[in-house]
Design brief:
With about 150 residues, the chain is of the alpha/beta class. About 15% of the residues lie in helices and about 35% in strands. Strands 1-2-5-9-13-16 form a 6-stranded parallel sheet, with helices on one face. A 4-stranded parallel sheet has the order 3-6-10-14, with no helix packed on it. A 4-stranded parallel sheet has the order 4-8-12-15. It is globular, with a radius of gyration of 17 Å.
């Protein structure tokens, strides 16, 4: 019985790993938002170098958003939204890696809004983002526990 249970667990893991895909922006999807809308848990949205004028991007739990290059060269710049000038995470736990959030603004916060979310944010930079009167410039958290690693503010 124990061997059968182990075999089932291994097969389930292989099925999940095999079904994960990479969505390339702008090759497979013209925008980051569209790439994320096509993504399922376990998928990676790989963004080519460049600046993206998009706002209110909603992250999906279990999806990886990663810059294609080794530097923070996926740039969210000069965007404005009500919540999260660059990215909005609601009830999600994505991985956001090697992105630059610069000169974004929002009515309540600056570059990123986290609500009941615990994303991993790795090797990202937050420069010159602004919020409204009481809002922070980089990341606004409500009932959230982000993990920040090697980020620059």
């Amino acid at each position: 019985m124990r061997k059968a249970t182990s075999l089932v667990c291994i097969l389930m893991f292989l099925t999940v790993a095999a079904s994960a895909s990479t969505i390339r922006v702008p090759i497979d999807a013209p925008t980051i938002a569209e790439g994320l809308s096509l993504a399922d848990r376990g998928d990676t949205v790989l963004v080519a170098c460049g600046s993206y004028l998009e706002h209110g991007i909603i992250m999906v739990s279990g999806v990886v958003l990663r810059s294609e290059g080794g530097e923070a060269d996926c740039v969210f710049e000069n965007n404005h939204a009500i919540f999260g000038g660059g990215i909005l995470c609601m009830y999600s736990n994505p991985l956001i890696e090697r992105c630059l959030f610069q000169a974004n603004s929002a009515d309540g916060d600056g570059a990123m809004t986290l609500f009941r979310s615990s994303p991993e944010i790795i090797d990202c930079e937050f420069l010159g983002n602004t919020g409204s009167v009481d809002g922070p410039g980089a990341i606004w958290c409500r009932y959230s526990s982000p993990s920040l690693l090697r980020c620059i503010f």
